[in-house]
Amino acid sequence: MTLGGLALAVGILVDDATVTIENINWHLEQGKAVEPAIMDGANQIVTPAFVSLLCICIVFVPMFFLTGVARFLFVPMAEAVMFAMAWSFILSRTLVPTMAKYLLQPHRHHAEGEAPPPSRNPLVRFQRGFEARFERLRGGYRELLSLAMQRRPVFAIGFLGFVAVSFLLVPYLGRNFFPSVDSGSILMHVRTQVGTRVEESANQFAEVQKAIRKIIPPDEIDTLADNIGMPISGINMTYNNTGVIGPQDGDIQIKLKEGHRPTSEYVQALREQLPRAFPGMTFAFLPADIVSQILNFGAPAPIDLQVRGADVNANFAYANKLLSRIRRIPGIADARIQQSPNNPSFNIDVDRTRAQYVGLTERDVTNSLVVNLAGSAQVAPTYYLNPDNGVSYSIVMQTPQFQIDSLSALETLPITAGTTATPPILGGIANITRSTSSAVVSQYDIQPMVQIYATPEGRDLGAVAADVKTVIADTAKEVSKGSSVVLLGQVQTMNSAFSGLLFGLLAAIVLIYLLIVVNFQSWSDPFVIITALPAALAGIVWMLFTTQTTLSVPALTGAIMCMGVATANSVLVISFARERYEQSGDPIAAAIEAGFVRFRPVLMTALAMIIGMAPMALGLGEGGEQNAPLGRAVVGGLVFATVATLMFVPVVFSMVHKKQGAKAAAPSETLHAAH
What we know:
Blueprint: H1 2-29, H2 34-58, H3 69-103, H4 122-150, H5 152-166, E1 185-191, H6 198-215, E2 221-228, H7 234-238, E3 249-256, H8 263-277, E4 282-286, H9 290-295, E5 303-308, H10 312-326, E6 332-337, E7 343-350, H11 352-357, H12 362-373, E8 382-385, E9 392-395, H13 407-411, H14 426-429, E10 430-437, E11 443-444, E12 447-456, H15 461-474, E13 484-489, H16 490-520, H17 524-530, H18 533-546, H19 553-584, H20 587-597, H21 599-617, H22 628-674
Antiparallel strand pairs: 1-3, 1-4, 2-3, 5-12, 5-13, 6-12, 7-10, 8-9, 11-12
Helix pairs in contact: 1-2, 1-3, 1-21, 2-3, 2-16, 2-19, 4-20, 4-22, 5-18, 5-22, 6-8, 16-17, 16-19, 17-19, 17-22, 18-19, 18-22, 19-20, 19-21, 19-22, 20-22, 21-22
């Protein structure tokens, strides 16, 4: 994210030096010598430039109050932007004026109507042609601004109406926590019938792999590997986030070669064809890249619906009804219940009377079964110390599995105990019946729970989550007494991050306003400056809408960044307008001249930022989809903010100061009439 911060700030870093040189050049055009032009030009913009620096930096302050993943992602980016901006300001106040003294020359002024001497230098000819076209563009802008000044109320109402209408598009944007990234990897979780032995699961997984190679061309598959069953160590289960609960589960990892077709197309094809080819198996596609796995906080799906309560059977019944409703929601894929109550098991009911006749207790039977079926390490750990190397080795005794391959073999299992000379068999002291049990026991705050996992496909996460909440509300009366239904997963994290960033956006606007109030010693001019910010937000909405980009955490971060840059341009215009207004006393003429003079630096600032953000906005490079919403938000916001800075802000300035001038003139006229 630090590199993303530098990419975000590269346009502004160039802008500081650009505005300084442009202002020096304007003073040279007034006929000043080089050194006075440098001193006057640098002194004239040092205050607005410093205010602009503070405006851009202060918008990142709320990010330091974020929590969770959003904080770890965006605080480094904010620090990179703030430190880069600070050093850019220092260099533009020291190094740039020093170099300007040695590189710039006084301007030659020609009489009115006299053309400069012709030149054969192609660069000079290009520069003169560009200047001529730019002056025509600036002249057209001045006429357009003068026309807006003549119809100020109509223009202001129309502009604000367009901005207000633009916000009606916000519900159609959709919401995602982070945009999906095509990492070229597919992670698929497969579950056969619960209770399937691991060797049979391996045979079925082999058939699934054959089907995968028919769907995905073999020349696009780099590697294809599967992990089947439970790991030996419980530590491995701790770090497993795919939902494996038994020997019937497994994960298939697919790595595609470079130049492959979009991964989402293959995922969609596998979702459609594999369930039809293997009707007794369940398939779920999990986040394959590390970023998505972190955003899910270890859960195997973005949507984690939990039914908590003491009545497990009633919760399973309700979860199955809820699952059937959720599967009918548009945009839902891989909906399944994580837990299963249908794990095959044997119920061993020990007859305590018969066991007592042979001198056995319930504890003796349990320990003997554990030793025979799971190994002696569970009840009587034994170690051997090798005297040669001093290493202790664990010794485990267990009956070979092939000797216990049927119910009759289990019934003839001897039950050993220290007090019995002839060990009885299990069938002689216990009744064995077939039953089912939970394949995995999941709890939340000691309460048993049933989890429903689901993944959005073809729709944004916010819309899918809203439909899921509607289904939960519709079926609330069917929840068993004492149970509760909670929607967790990436949805909860997204809502928390959005709340923090939206608060940061509002806080940034308030901090910018208060900062400008302190520097300008006025309440009205800072208000005029921030009138460009609603237009910037409208531009963000239009850019996201036209590019079919959902509202996400990177997009909101770009919106916060755009607030600072849009304010910096308005500060340049209004600071110059204040100077001209104090000299002439005419707010309309001051506003028009400020827009005309600052037309070039404002355009250069916006274009430098837009060009710097263009590669990010286009999503170029590996994983470029991750930061594309950020770039698009900045570009869209700056385009609209630039128009507002050059057209709307001068109009508002003239309207505000026209009223203030009228109020100031009224007391003087009354006093003059009294005399």
